[in-house]
Amino acid sequence: DSDSGSRPRRDYLRIEGVTRRFDDTLAVDGVSLAIAEREIFALLGSSGCGKTTLLRMLAGLEAPDAGRIVLDGEDLAAVPAYRRPTNMMFQSYALFPHLTVEQNVAFGLWQERPRLARAEVAARVAAMLELVQMQRYARRKPHELSGGQQQRVALARSLAKEPKLLLLDEPLAALDKKIRQRTQLELVNLIERVGVTCILVTHDQEEAMTMAGRIGVMNEGRLLQVGTPGEIYETPNCRFTAEFVGETNLFRGRVDGGALHCEDFPAPILLPADADPDDGGEAWLSVRPERVALSRAGAAPAGAGCNAAVGEVAEIAYLGSHSVYHVRLANGRIVIASVASAQWRDAAPPTWGDAVRVAWFAPDGVVLTR
Ligand code: ATP
């Protein structure tokens, strides 16, 4: 942030040991998290992991059984939903079908206390519609808009009340893939221009990575890892994150003398030097497919410091910029390699049944102990 005069506070929102149980389901299990002012943060997890429940507790639609939520120095426990400085935007946008675009955006403003003057409401609505570039549609009804336009109106409505915290629950789920990708960037741009702190809930890892500065990975009510998209992808801290965010090759084995002894790999696997798992313990190694080099089995073998094995091509998915190869080793184990199409400029790419070698540098693996 270049604006040194107003440095964003790093713990603008503090979630401290928040827990929520429904009957025998621990929906949210002791989640602690600090979010900076003006940050865009994504809660990422599959269906049922508790991300929506956490969001609803921030909005005041659900009360925690334990823990505290502090926003901008204020403990929210005693603040009812309608008085919270938060605004939640849902999947379905929930625009009122009988109201025009501008009436929809103005809707929440009429309930502000102290009351806003009519001119003030009109000015804020106009500013918001300009922000999302929907001025031209001010008199239309929601059914006369595209999905992307409805989404922008819903955002304008959420921002009109100038919330301290914007909560987005799968905001783009209703859009088709192509529009969704464009809208992700548009939305980030808008949120950054407004400068509102934002928490986004999604099960879509690409969406989380595209939109958020940091991601929190959730599973079974727990927050497993928090980090930038790069940190989460490159250095997952557990098997769940490694497999949930992107594709990976996981090798399970016993650690002995700095190597992983693994039943489904032909040789002890060299581990990165900085990983120091206990000898004799069980561990997993995660190797991203794009870290796995693929060559013809007859080519010069991989150099020192590499883990390598020979197998045959079992499957290929050609994706334009790259291809994903499934290579079956002699023992049946599949190793996935993602290979840039540019690699085959001077030679034909290997095809089904060809004998190939997969190899990766030891430092490119990530050791996981849980
Ligand atoms: P989705 O993406 O499908 O919305 P989620 O990650 O947002 O999933 P939550 O909606 O937070 O998950 O639900 C977490 C767990 O709590 C689930 O097992 C769910 O069945 C349960 N749960 C949520 N709300 C209630 C409720 N009102 N009553 C009972 N159980 C609930």
What does this structure look like?
- This is Spermidine/putrescine import ATP-binding protein PotA.
- Keywords: ATP-binding, Cell inner membrane, Cell membrane, Membrane, Nucleotide-binding, Translocase, Transport.
- Belongs to the ABC transporter superfamily. Spermidine/putrescine importer (TC 3.A.1.11.1) family.
- Part of the ABC transporter complex PotABCD involved in spermidine/putrescine import. Responsible for energy coupling to the transport system.
- The chain is built from 8 helices and 20 strands.
- By secondary structure, the protein is of the alpha+beta class.
- The protein folds into 2 domains: 4-243, P-loop containing nucleotide triphosphate hydrolases (Rossmann fold); 249-368, Beta Barrel (OB fold (Dihydrolipoamide Acetyltransferase, E2P)).
- A hairpin with a 2-residue loop joins strand 1 (13-22) and strand 2.
- Helix 3 (118-131) packs across helix 4 (147-160).
- The longest helix is centred in the middle third of the chain and has 18 residues, at 177-194.
- It starts with 12 loop residues before the first strand and ends with a strand.
- The site of adenosine-5'-triphosphate has 12 residues, from strand 2 and helix 1.
- Adenosine-5'-triphosphate binds at residues 22, 25, 27, 45, 47-53, 203.
Q: Tell me the fraction of residues in β-strands, as a range.
A: 25-35%
- CATH homologous superfamily of the largest domain? P-loop containing nucleotide triphosphate hydrolases
Spatially, the strands of the biggest sheet line up as: 6-7-8-3-9-10
The CATH topology of the largest domain? Rossmann fold
Low-confidence runs: none
User: Which bin fits the share of residues in helices?
Assistant: 10-25%
| Shape call | elongated
- Please tell me the total number of domains: 2
Q: Count every helix, treating DSSP H or I runs of 4 or more residues as helices.
A: 8
Write down the Rg.
25 Å
Bound molecules: adenosine-5'-triphosphate
Architecture of the largest domain, according to CATH?
A: 3-Layer(aba) Sandwich
* Overall strand count: 20
Give the averaged pLDDT, no decimals.
89
Subunit structure: The complex is composed of two ATP-binding proteins (PotA), two transmembrane proteins (PotB and PotC) and a solute-binding protein (PotD).
EC number: 7.6.2.11
Keywords: ATP-binding, Cell inner membrane, Cell membrane, Membrane, Nucleotide-binding, Translocase, Transport
Organism: Aromatoleum toluvorans
